Amino acid sequence: MPHDEPFRVLIAALGSYGDVHPFLAIGRELQRRGNDVVMILPAMYESLTRSLGLEFVPAVSIERFERISSKAELWHPVKGFHVVAEGVAESLGWFYQAIVNNHRPGRTGLVMSTLVLGGRVAQETLDIRGVTVHLSPAIIRSAIDPPRTPPLPTASWMPRWWNRLVYRAVDFLVIDRVMTGRLNVFRRSLGLAPVKRVFDGRIHSPDRVIGLFPDWFAPPPSDWPRQTVLTGFPLYDEADVTRADPDLEKFLKEGEPPIAFTPGSAMRYGKEFFSEAVQACRLLGRRGVLLSRHLEHLPVNLPREIRHVDYAPFSRLLPRCAAIVHHGGIGTSAQAMAAGTPQLVVPMAHDQQDNAARLKRLGVSETLPASKFSAGRAASLLKEIMNDSHATSCRAIKERMSAENPLARTAEVIEQAFRGNEPDRPAGR
């Protein structure tokens, strides 16, 4: 196609609000640049997507998404993978068919999140160029500098042959047994050969892989996929379409900066987390803001110095907070760094341990495992992160992020990939 002709860009993503927000930001930037953008997402995101002026195609029903995301095992450090794998397997055909239905031969490019394996299948059957976007570095394996993903016994100080052996063992014993069965049945129905070791390479598009984080957060080791480019944190949080909560605004203005608490937008089992959060605020004599869309796990009769909100854009809230206590999701972590807000990370599963370790190395956070989270421990660590040394590190990272333009860079790399051009800044090279 001519160099200046706009693309039809299909953007397919699966996950929580924090997982989907970056793709909405990418979609708007690509549309602003003149491309025809179609968002392929779970049905629960239709209203938000359309409010941003983007075309929407549902790939997973609200009922099916809720059934998977409501499982308590999703937040277990080991069992959580099985829940995710179940959701990925169920969504294979839905994403694949949505992509096929919206493909226009000769002018379509595909952008997909890590777990949209139906997109990787569509790349083969439709012969279209695609870009895989990974939100956090934990998803990209390395024998040189492995991400911190307990319970896997991998580390940068261990021999590379050992790290590779661990990855092969977990593929053979767990991942391939859980994921490749349904994937290969689906592939066989389309006349495609079976695959194995999905997480070793199958999740990466051969055309381009984008890491939505900067190299100062995760320096790329030389054994990452050669087609990987890092573009930075996109930082979208609905601030442009979400009205300010009058009660929250009044609360923020009438006293000292509060401490924000969130276990993540999809987490439904935070009763103990929020109960201890309230007690931690009392121990510290501080005000608090509890963020959750799920009312059932919130304490009843909150004291007057504590407020609950379903949702508040972090770009508006966090600059007015003394600290944030959160699960270690990459989106929350990035928003807190951009706001210069000290963080106490309480990781549970998935990429959260790795994100927590990277934040601590940057000097902007401390870590308290979810299994050890209590009001007393939280209060002690909050005192520590709200001191001058953490504040200095937070300000430095905030200034660094303010000078970056990740969305423009991401859109540029995507368009280069669709044209078959090499990136000008490949990761790790």
Largest sheet composition: 7 strands, parallel
Overall mean pLDDT score? 91
- The number of E-state strands comes to 13
Uncertain runs with pLDDT below 50, 5 residues or more?
424-429
Helix content: 40-55%
Terminal Cα separation, in Å?
A: 29 Å
Order of helices and strands: EHEHEHHEHEHHEEHEHEEHEHEHEHHH
Instruction: Name the strands of the widest sheet in spatial order.
Output: 3-2-1-4-5-6-7
Shape descriptor reads globular
Which structural class best describes the helix and strand composition?
Answer: alpha/beta
Number of helices: 15
Q: From the alpha-carbon coordinates, what is the Rg to the nearest angstrom?
A: 21 Å
Percentage beta strand: 5-15%
Please supply descriptive tags for the structure shown above.
alpha/beta; 6-stranded parallel sheet; 15 helices; 13 strands
Model description:
Strands 3-2-1-4-5-6-7 form a seven-stranded parallel beta sheet, with helices on both faces. The protein has helices at residues 17-32, 46-51, 62-69, 79-102, 117-126, 160-189, 198-202, 246-253, 271-284, 314-317, 330-339, 352-361, 375-385, 388-402, 406-419, and strands at 8-12, 36-42, 55-60, 108-113, 130-134, 208-211, 228-230, 259-262, 288-291, 306-309, 323-326, 343-345, 365-367. Helices cover 43% and strands 14% of the residues. The chain is an alpha/beta fold and 429 residues long. The chain starts with 7 loop residues before the first strand and ends in a 10-residue tail after the last helix.
